[in-house]
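User: Sequence recovery, please. Input:
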């Protein structure tokens, strides 16, 4: 659900403005409304951008120092007083380390180039060059000297692949040596070794300085980051302030949750300024704060990935939560994988998931949602009869003659009298229900916002589709006779056709009846085309639930089969068989989890949101408060 909001408007005398902003920030519950005053935006924008860049830089410095200390949890903020100097020191040390890495790489390359040529006195070579003798350096493969023995006298060294030799010639002589020329660095081998040793010592010293700085002053830099964050939000608050009366009076408008009314009223009594409190009105840009139960709240992050609902809309999370959970469980379709997912969720809740490779950083903080998805996957996978790719009914783990076994076997069979899988039919049925629910919610929401007469066409589609589905179910269940079914369908068709083709635009029909009688049916036909083509594609999308479930089960079974074949002879072959089982199922689990996250998300974000009329263009509630 969406939390009810109250609007606050303040008029502040300019001399009291700074003190007022400080007190409002300490209150920490008022979302300051964006101002349309472009002059204020121009005044503070450059400062805000500058501070945001500084904040990004501080985040990098803190992350680097955190890595130096090899800690997962940052210390509590310290004293921000001299933190600017500590940041400069950290930057200087980091720049020096980076420069040393570049120098070390360069001298290392020079060392590797010079190593085959050994140690030699460059001054002697210089004397030869001064007398007009040119020394040229070459390398070639080891067979070279067998075919060109005339160059053997200049052999200097060799390694596993190449020989290295020199050729002496008079200055001005053009050489035609069938080998690769080598350009030696200006340094000698001994110099490179000295430089490398010195750079290594300097780097060790720099790392020690960096570690000491992190140990002593990381907390202070964290405190300074909080200071910068507070500067940014304060500048943004100033940017959203309206200046009136020759900049003598400041107007600040904001919103706060209605259930915090007592706290806000106590604050208002303590401030010496004019204020006004009122309920939201039509046309207000009210921020949205989602408020759900403990389980549904876990899935609010999915809704926020798409966007916030408008204040006068309905929160889609209570519908997204159960359907995303169900879709995920069906796509995974394996009770054993569900247990592992649930265990991972418990690890995250216990604060240990960051130590799990690959997944830690990406899924940290989602423990509650992951645990819920894992439990649902365990239940659904078990009912579908699959545990780690093993069909537990066929394997005899669940006797087929028991009630549970017969239900599992039925779910793995076909729809009676057809060749279609019950699981595939079930996926389509779930899709039909999901879309019908979306259309009902859309009709109710639009009626609430704009009135029934403006959405008779929408209700016409709801009556046609939902009524048709319910009638079909009752007819197949034998609750309606053939004659009764025909009569009900005729009534549904007549009522829905009236809304879809004639009453879809009541304003036009009321103001210009003749034009409405002509244009409304045409608009209805166009809407019918879009609805028919769109619904068909939407419903078919739900078949992927069955397809992903089937694919994951088949791949898990394939790994089991390969492992069984490898370990069939027993003995030492058990070890590679176990490796195949473990690696195969880890791979299948990860691949299935990606698909099981993406496709259910798509079914909610595309099929459901589109048919429910949800566009996610609301503004999230972001109170002006002290930053940490």
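Assistant: Recovered sequence (628 residues):
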């Amino acid at each position: 659900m969406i939390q009810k909001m109250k609007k606050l408007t303040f008029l502040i005398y300019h001399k009291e403005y700074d003190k007022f902003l400080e007190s409002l920030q300490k209150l920490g519950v008022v979302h300051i409304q964006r101002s349309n005053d472009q002059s204020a935006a121009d005044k503070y924008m450059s400062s805000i951008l500058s501070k945001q860049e500084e904040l990004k830089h501080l985040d990098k410095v803190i992350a680097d120092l955190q890595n130096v200390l090899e800690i997962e949890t940052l210390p509590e903020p310290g004293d921000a007083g001299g933190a600017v100097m500590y940041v400069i020191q950290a930057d200087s040390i980091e720049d020096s380390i980076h420069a040393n890495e570049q120098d070390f790489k360069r001298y290392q390359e020079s060392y590797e180039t010079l190593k085959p040529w050994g140690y030699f006195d460059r001054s002697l070579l210089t004397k030869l060059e001064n007398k007009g003798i040119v020394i040229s350096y070459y390398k070639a493969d080891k067979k070279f000297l067998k075919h060109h023995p005339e160059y053997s006298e200049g052999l200097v060294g060799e390694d596993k692949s190449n020989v290295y030799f020199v050729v002496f010639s008079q200055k001005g002589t053009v050489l035609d040596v069938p080998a690769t020329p080598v350009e030696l660095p200006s340094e000698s081998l001994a110099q490179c070794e000295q430089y490398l040793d010195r750079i290594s010592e300097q780097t060790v010293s720099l790392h020690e300085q960096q570690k000491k700085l992190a140990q002593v002053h990381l907390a202070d830099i964290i405190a300074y980051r909080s200071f910068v964050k507070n500067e940014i939000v304060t500048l943004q608050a100033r940017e959203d302030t309206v200046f009136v009366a020759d900049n003598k009076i400041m107007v600040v408008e904001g919103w706060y949750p209605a259930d915090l009314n007592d706290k806000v009223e106590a604050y208002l009594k303590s401030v010496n300024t004019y204020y006004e409190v009122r309920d939201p009105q039509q046309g207000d840009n009210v921020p949205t704060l989602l408020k759900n139960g403990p389980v549904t709240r876990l899935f609010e992050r999915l809704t926020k990935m798409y966007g916030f609902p408008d204040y006068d809309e309905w929160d889609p999370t209570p519908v997204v939560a159960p359907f995303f959970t169900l879709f995920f469980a069906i796509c995974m379709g394996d009770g054993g994988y569900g247990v592992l997912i649930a265990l991972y969720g418990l690890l995250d809740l216990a604060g240990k998931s960051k130590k799990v490779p690959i997944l830690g950083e990406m899924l940290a903080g989602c423990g509650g949602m992951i645990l819920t998805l894992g439990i649902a996957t365990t239940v659904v996978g078990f009912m579908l009869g699959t545990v780690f790719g093993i069909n537990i009914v066929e394997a005899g783990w669940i006797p087929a003659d028991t009630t549970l076994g017969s239900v599992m076997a039925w779910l793995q069979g076909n729809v009676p009298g057809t060749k279609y899988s019950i699981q595939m039919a079930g996926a389509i049925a779930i899709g039909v229900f999901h879309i019908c629910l979306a259309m009902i919610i859309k009709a109710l929401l639009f009626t609430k916002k704009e009135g029934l007469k403006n959405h008779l066409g929408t209700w016409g589609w709801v009556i046609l589709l939902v009524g048709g589905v319910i009638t079909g179910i009752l007819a197949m269940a034998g609750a309606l006779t053939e004659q009764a079914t025909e009569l009900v369908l005729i009534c549904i068709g007549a009522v829905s056709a009236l809304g879809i083709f004639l009453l879809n635009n009541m304003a036009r029909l009321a103001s210009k009846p003749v034009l409405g009688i002509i244009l409304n049916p045409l608009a209805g036909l166009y809407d019918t085309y879009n609805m028919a083509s769109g619904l068909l594609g939407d419903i078919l999308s739900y078949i992927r639930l069955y397809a992903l479930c089937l694919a994951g089960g088949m791949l898990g079974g394939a790994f089991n089969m390969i492992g069984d074949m490898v370990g069939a002879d027993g003995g030492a072959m058990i070890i590679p068989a176990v490796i195949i089982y473990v690696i195969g199922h880890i791979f299948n689990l990860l691949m299935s989890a990606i698909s099981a996250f993406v496709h259910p998300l798509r079914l909610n974000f595309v099929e459901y949101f589109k048919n429910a009329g949800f566009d996610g263009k609301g503004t999230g509630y972001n109170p002006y408060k002290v930053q940490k």
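Residues 189-239 form the longest helix (51 residues).
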